[in-house]
UniProtKB/TrEMBL annotation:
Protein family membership: Belongs to the 'GDSL' lipolytic enzyme family.
Name by which UniProt lists this protein: GDSL esterase/lipase
Region annotation Disordered: where it falls in the sequence: 365-384
Pfam family, one: Lipase_GDSL
Leader sequence segment: 1-17
Lineage: Eukaryota, Viridiplantae, Streptophyta, Embryophyta, Tracheophyta
InterPro entries: GDSL, GDSL_Est/Lipase, SGNH_hydro_sf, SGNH_plant_lipase-like
Alphabetically ordered keywords of this record: Hydrolase, Lipid degradation, Lipid metabolism, Signal
Listed PANTHER family: GDSL LIPASE/ACYLHYDROLASE FAMILY PROTEIN (AFU_ORTHOLOGUE AFUA_4G14700), ZINC FINGER PROTEIN
Coiled-coil region(s): none
Biased composition (Pro residues): 373-384
Example GO biological process: lipid catabolic process
Single GO MF descriptor: hydrolase activity, acting on ester bonds
Length: 384
């Protein structure tokens, strides 16, 4: 659960429509990430403490009931996919998931509390780390190979585009917490190097002290699994999320956390450039929305928000409440609040972030095939 995923927001794979052994394969998404992209995986983790299964999560989407998303409406991945004409992929732990659904819609592996590192978010009891998400992706590959054959499946996955949104939990729910060994085993620079190194290894399979090691692991893993066109989303100013503010003495942004996000983004961008230059037939890009999110938080009125420092869903004066619960009080106009709860952006904030990333990457709609486009979220109601 975390905000840094804001920019560090979200993993999505788009598979270009093509005919594979008689299967009309549509453009789909495979999403890797944390609570900013989770659409229901943690709902199936019965012992997980990172949950969005209670009202008022999902109030402004579909039937208004909790759907596994850690916000009041859509995720950034939802909005980007909708704008590109892509179907919304189901959670990998959805018991109704089939091979045909994967070919039709793709898969979402994101899990609240998950991080690049296995040890991140351990106190949530259950969550899917990026390593575990990639293990599940390997299982998906096995299913598709059985369905359409090895050669067709290889082309199917190599033609896919992958988007990954992770990283904030590795700081907020790991490095910045003294109960974790990583908090005293590394300094700011070496932790980032550790992350980058891990991520690089992971990417090659589907930073040079702590942060470098993380990114390198990620690279190796995804590339060996067939990922060729991939977008990694950077982190936003995670020191400005309500949880970080309320834990500070001044109720202001925690600058150390923001500096870590900037360092992560710089290292992540360099890693993607390096990978694209040395991995065959690979295009890896890094999406950084830090500046626009920081500007919104600094000048919310200019962007149509009235509040960018506290959660819309809160438990009165009891802060931090951490999650939104049925007894929580909602703000009067959800569309005017940048943050939904102590960690996560609102639907309106996610839309702003998604549009910035769409513009930055020059993303456009894909050619639509048969079937309707996914229904948009309902507009946030001004009623609490």
């Amino acid at each position: 659960m975390k905000f840094t995923a804001l920019a560090a927001m979200m993993a999505a794979v788009t598979v270009l429509g093509l005919l594979i052994d008689g299967h009309d394969c549509k453009i789909v998404q495979f999403i890797f990430g944390d609570s900013l992209s989770d659409v229901g995986n943690n709902k199936r983790l019965s012992r997980s403490l990172a949950q969005a299964s209670l009202p008022w999560y999902g109030i402004d989407m579909g039937n208004g009931l909790p759907n596994g998303r850690f916000t009041n409406g859509r995720t950034v991945a939802d909005i980007i996919g909708d704008n590109m004409g892509l179907p919304r992929p189901p959670a990998v732990l959805d018991p109704s998931l089939t091979e045909d659904m994967i070919l039709e819609k793709g898969v979402n592996y994101a899990s609240g509390g998950g991080g690049i590192l296995n040890e991140t978010g351990g106190y949530f009891i259950q969550k899917l780390s990026l390593y575990r998400q990639i293990d599940l992706f390997q299982g998906t590959q096995t299913l598709i190979k059985s369905k359409i054959g090895a050669n067709a499946a290889e082309k199917f996955f190599q033609d896919a585009r992958y988007v990954v949104a992770l990283g904030s939990n590795d700081f907020i729910n790991n490095y910045l917490m003294p109960l974790y060994r990583d908090s005293w085993s590394y300094n700011d620079q070496t932790f980032i190097e550790y992350l980058m190194g891990t991520l690089e290894r992971q990417l090659k399979s589907i930073v040079r002290s702590f942060l470098t090691r993380v990114l390198r692991a990620f690279e190796q893993l995804l590339h060996s699994l067939g990922a060729r066109q991939l977008i990694v989303f950077g982190l936003g100013p995670m020191g400005c999320i309500p949880l970080q503010r309320v834990l500070s003495t001044s109720n202001g942004c925690q600058e150390r956390s923001n500096k870590l996000a900037l360092s992560f983004n710089k290292a992540g961008n360099k890693l993607m450039e390096d990978l694209s230059s040395k991995l065959p037939n690979a295009t890896y890009r890094f999406g950084d929305a830090y500046d626009v999110v920081n500007d919104v938080i600094t000048n919310p009125i200019q962007y149509g928000f009235t509040n960018a420092d506290s959660p819309c869903c809160s438990f009165g004066i009891i802060r931090p409440a951490l999650t939104c619960v049925p007894a929580s009080v909602l703000c009067s106009d959800r569309s005017k609040y940048f943050f939904w709860d102590e960690y996560h952006p609102s639907d309106s904030a996610n839309e702003l972030i998604a549009k910035e990333l769409i513009k930055k990457f020059g993303l456009s709609r894909v050619d639509e095939t048969d079937g309707p486009s996914p229904a948009p979220a309902f507009a946030p109601s001004p009623e609490g």
